[in-house]
Amino acid sequence: MDYTEQLDLAIERLHEEGRYRTFIDIERQNGQFPHAEWTREDGTKKDITVWCGNDYLGMGQNPVVIDAMHEAIDATGAGSGGTRNISGTTVYHKRLEAELADLHGKEGALLFTSAYIANDATLSTLPKLFPGAIIYSDALNHASMIEGVRRNGGAKRIFRHNDVAHLRELLAADDPAAPKIIAFESIYSMDGDFGPIEAICDLADEFGALTYIDEVHAVGMYGPRGAGVAERDGLMHRLDIINGTLAKAYGVMGGYIAASAKMCDAIRSYAPGFIFTTSLPPAVAAGAAASVKHLKTAQELRDSQQLQAKILKLRLKGLGLPIIDHGSHIVPVMVGNPVHTKLLSDMLLEEHGIYVQPINFPTVPRGTERLRFTPSPVHGPLEIEALVKAMDALWSHCALNRAELTG
What we know:
Elements: H1 3-16, E1 26-28, E2 35-39, E3 45-50, H2 63-76, H3 91-104, E4 108-112, H4 115-129, E5 134-138, H5 143-151, E6 155-159, H6 164-173, E7 180-185, E8 187-188, E9 193-194, H7 197-207, E10 209-214, H8 229-232, E11 241-245, E12 255-259, H9 261-270, H10 272-275, H11 282-295, H12 299-318, E13 331-334, H13 338-352, E14 354-355, E15 358-359, E16 370-373, H14 381-397
Helix pairs in contact: 2-11, 3-11, 4-5, 6-7, 12-14, 13-14
């Protein structure tokens, strides 16, 4: 086999389908978020506004976080030097886990290098702890959850997205004595819709199932202390395992689960993704702990972010652009064609200094390609006005349909 030729063919297919992904080289400017500097391939630079970042609240440049990281790196150096089991557990890791357990009202929390690894490692390990377990997974769960469910070697059932009736049918059809785990999300990031947490918890109680919720796009963002949608709705106590990230609203890096002390102990003892991975650098753990602690009392940031998202959605709707609005902070604008989506993204960047990455298959189904905007508290009136004007002009220039989608 000509391996190089096969690689060329694989990459060429992506180009032909308009799905080839390019990296945009940007340099964030400390204290200036969401403004950054883009370096083109020819080496020239352009000032841009980032509209697709996951640093939802700008905590990645908050002095509270940066000062904590400086203090930790000055005290400990760069890396942790090992896995959590072999020299890689520091006071910073323990403090962060304590902050997260307190955040979610759980006995314990367990750190991973990312929320992807936390999902994959935990969901693939649960059937080892509960032999014969069946995992019921929402059809639109994140790739990390899908991978964890796929790799666990146990039985799985896929229920239609947010379809509680279908989930009930699947639960009722299985052996009542079999261990059961329902895996779902609080906010599905591509459409910005909410999972039916209470209804799923009711089914879990009825059928004796454990609940596993991914709150990655909600932690820091919802609830009186930023613990997520489950906190907002008063349902955290009914969830057995909560997954979250430190790389989005908290502005740093890493992922975690929060659960009972015994569940955390079992996962850390059995999950290869935890056992064999070098732990987070102490400075990262310190910054994340500072961010989590700060956002427990920073409701004004959450309120400001929600206001900016609401304003942007109203402005885009006023232009007749096809946005999806489920009431969350995520603002998807539907394009429906991968080539057009990439073209719009390129034109926004080059002509208007607005950076929003095209979202294509396999992240979303074919035919639902989109631009996904994530406003933050520091996307102010000037940034919103510039975005709205650019979108209006490009939508007309490309002769795209103006038809509102409301969910």
